[in-house]
Design goal:
By secondary structure, this protein is of the alpha/beta class. It contains nine helices and eleven strands. A hairpin with a 4-residue loop joins strand 2 and strand 3. The relative contact order is 0.20. The structure holds 1-O-pyrophosphono-5-O-phosphono-alpha-D-ribofuranose.
Length: 211
């Protein structure tokens, strides 16, 4: 039997995923050690391998088949636009993708003005403004702390993840439009889905019972 390889997005989602996998008898003890620098972990009994990677790399590993299965946020799946099957909503990591800004920016959205939009998610932002709203905008790619952009005048609005809304509130910003709900998803390589249908089907079936 060959190894079934999992790619997990580093961080909070990974810990929740490991908890969930434990419930169905998939234990990856070594992986829970926050201080380890090891990159890949194996459960020899189950013939399962698992690694952590940057969230945005998970769809890449899965599309190329370097990982059979991935666990990653819907935001990353939408942004990366890779060829893969999205097979299950794990129901945690719930938040939403939103257009945010100061209240004063609301009129720019209503009047379809040519504005600047800062985001860690340029593809999601482009798709929303160009194809759903038919509003021409200039997208500015940032890598973090996107809430700064409208405060310092880099952009009129941002497209970003809102979970509790605390970051917005503490910076005098608001949700102006909601783009879509987000949560952690399981993705599967398209060839693995056929070649390892039985094993993957069993895993997904077991997971469905515990979520
Ligand atoms: C995310 C997101 C928001 C914040 C939303 O940022 O980009 O900034 O969390 O959460 P809240 O609504 O509960 O305040 P992250 O923590 O990933 O940091 P970054 O923006 O620096 O990448």
């Amino acid at each position: 039997m060959r190894y079934l390889t999992f790619a997990l997005a580093k961080g909070r989602l990974a810990y929740k995923t490991l908890e969930l996998l434990e419930k169905i008898g998939v234990n990856m003890e070594e992986m829970k050690d926050k201080n380890t620098r090891k990159l890949i972990f194996t459960n020899e009994d189950l013939k399962i391998r698992m690694f952590l990677s940057k969230a945005s790399d998970v769809p890449t590993y899965v599309e190329y088949g370097a990982a059979d299965i991935g666990v990653v946020g819907k935001d990353t799946i939408l942004e990366e636009g890779r060829k893969l099957y999205e097979v299950m909503d794990l129901g945690f990591g719930k938040c939403s993708m939103c257009v945010c800004g100061p209240e004063s920016a609301r009129e720019y959205l209503e009047h379809q003005q040519l504005i600047r939009v800062a985001s860690k998610y340029p593809n999601i932002a482009k798709d929303y403004f160009n194809h759903k709203k038919h509003q021409t905008v200039e997208i500015i790619k940032l890598h973090g702390s996107v809430e700064l952009a409208p405060i310092v005048g880099l952009s009129e609005v941002i497209v970003d993840i809102v979970e509790t809304g605390t970051t917005l509130k503490e910076n005098g910003l608001k949700v102006l439009e909601e783009i879509c709900p987000l949560s952690a998803r399981i993705v599967v390589n398209q060839v693995s889905m056929k070649m390892e249908n039985e094993r993957i089907g069993q895993l997904l079936g077991a997971l469905k019972k515990v979520i």
